[in-house]
Amino acid sequence: MDAPWLQACKRLAVGQTARFRCCGRTPAAVLYNKPDAWQLWCHRCKTSLSERKQYVSLVQPEVLPRVLPAPAKLLQISQTSAELQAQLYGFLMSKGIWPEMVGEAYYSPEHKRLVLKTGNGILLGRALHDYQSPKWVIYGNCDATGHGAYAPRFKS
Ligand SMILES: [Zn+2]
C-alpha cells in the first residue's frame, strides 16, 4: 500500500502538479508526477520525497512446460561466444558449482538455457534470465509427469 502522498501523486497525469497537505492546516506541499518519478516537496517543513518509477519490462514472460523434448541443438559451453561463456560460467560459479563438477554442460540457443546432463543421462535446462519460467525444465522422454524421480539436485 502506497503512502497517501504517493497515492495522490499517482492519480496525476504525467507533468501535472497538485497541492498536498503534508503538515499543518493548509496544503503546503506540492506533488509532481514526473516522467521518471513521483515527488513531493513541502514548502513548510521542507520534506522532500521521491519514488522512482519502475519501467515496465519490454520482455514478455516466457513460461515453458516442465518437461520438453530435447532441444534440437546443444552447444558445448566452449563453443559459445566469449560473452555467453562468461555468463554461463558466471552463473555456475554463482551457484557454487565449478565447471569441473558438472559432467556435461551445454547451452541451448533455442531456449536460451544452460543445459546440464546428470549422471543418469537426464538433461536439465536452467533459466538464465528473469523472464524465463520455470527455472528448471527437464528435457527428454523421462517420467511423464515431470515430477519426483528426476527432480533437479540443485536448488535454484
Ligand atoms: Zn510539510
Description:
There is one protein chain. The chain is an alpha+beta fold. The protein folds into two domains: 4-52, no CATH class; 67-139, no CATH class. It has two helices and twelve strands; from the N terminus they run αβββββββαβββββ. The protein has helices at residues 4-10, 82-94; strands spanning 17-20, 29-33, 37-42, 48-52, 62-63, 67-68, 75-76, 104-108, 113-117, 123-127, 132-133, 136-139. It has a six-stranded mixed beta sheet, with no helix packed on it. β8 (104-108) and β9 (113-117) form a beta hairpin. It is elongated. The two termini are 30 Å apart. The model is unreliable at 142-156 (pLDDT under 50). Residues 22-23, 28-29, 42, 44-45, 47 line the site of zinc ion. The site of zinc ion has 8 residues, from loops.
Q: How does the SSE layout of this entry go?
A:
Blueprint: H1 4-10, E1 17-20, E2 29-33, E3 37-42, E4 48-52, E5 62-63, E6 67-68, E7 75-76, H2 82-94, E8 104-108, E9 113-117, E10 123-127, E11 132-133, E12 136-139
Parallel strand pairs: 5-11, 6-12
Antiparallel strand pairs: 1-2, 2-3, 3-4, 7-8, 8-9, 9-10, 10-12
The structure holds zinc ion.
